[in-house]
Amino acid sequence: MPKLIFAAADPRPDRWTELFKRELGSAFDVAAWTDDGRVHGADYAVVWRPPAILFEREQGLKAIFNLGAGVDGLIGQPGLPAGVPVIRLEDAGMSAQMAEFVIHQVVEHTRGMGVYRQQQRDGLWRAQRPVEREAWPIGILGLGSIGTRVARCLADLDYPVAGWVRTPREQAGIEVFAGPEGLAPFLARTRIVVNTLPLTAETQDIMNGTLFAALLPGAVVINVGRGDHLVDEDLVRAITAGRVAAATLDVFRHEPLPPDHPFWKMPEITLTPHVAARTLREETVRQIVAKVRALEAGEAVSGVVDLDRGY
Asked: What DSSP string describes 110-160?
C-alpha cells in the first residue's frame, strides 16, 4: 500500500491528514511525520520547510510535494534526494487571492482613496479627479500562474499592463519584456511595479536602488513575491528621496517583521503579514491527490520544479 506523509510546521497536522485520507481512500496509508527515530517508509511527502532528517530517514520517496508555489525554502536543503521530483502547488486558489490583493492596492493609489479617508476625518465633501489609467502603467515582475492572473485582471480593468519574464513569450493583452536586456525598457514605462517572481540566485535583491531609480516618477512598489527580493535600505532611501511615492509589502526578509524595523514608522509604506495569498487546504489537498494518483498510474504531472532554475 503506497504511503503519504505530511511534514509541515502545523500545530494541527490532523486537519491535513484527515483530508488526505478522505480523498485518497483506503488504498493509501496517510500519516503525519514525526521525528521519533523511525522510518515511515513513505512513497510521497507533503512538506513545508521540512527538517533535513526527514530525507535522511525516508529513502524511498517517489515525489515531494511542496505546500506552496515558491520552493526557495526547500531547494538546497541538506539531504534533498537527487532524482526525486519536487512538485510545487499550482494556484490552489492563490492566484485569485493575489489578484484581489494587488487590485486593492492599485486602486488605493490610482483612485486616491487615502485622500477620501482624510476628507472624511476633516468633514470635507470634495470629489477628486477621475482616474486616468494611462497615467498608471503597471509592470508585473514574473508571469507565472499567479503573475499572469494578476496581469490579466488589471488589464481587464483597462490599465496599461506589461510583464517581465526570463524568456520571451506571447501573452494576449499584455506587453511582454524578456531577459536582462528587457528589464530597462520594462522599468522605463512602469509606474506601479508588482513583484511576483520566484526567489532564485538571479532574482535575489532585484528590487534595489537601481530598479527604483529606473521607474517613472511617483512610482509605487508592491512586493508579494519574497522578502529577499527587496533591498530594504534601498527602498527606505528611495522613498526618503522622493523617487518612490509609496509601497505595499506583504513579505519580508525576517518574519515577523522586527519591531525596530524602519518600515513600521514610514507612512508611505503599507505592511501586511504575509497574507496576500493563503494556501487553501481543501483545494491544495485535491490538487496533490490528483497528482499522486497520476504518478501511481505512471502518468506525467505538471508543476515539477526545475531544480537548476529554482522554480
From this structure: HTTHHHHHHHHHHT---PPPPP-GGG--EEEE--SHHHHHHHHHHHHTT--
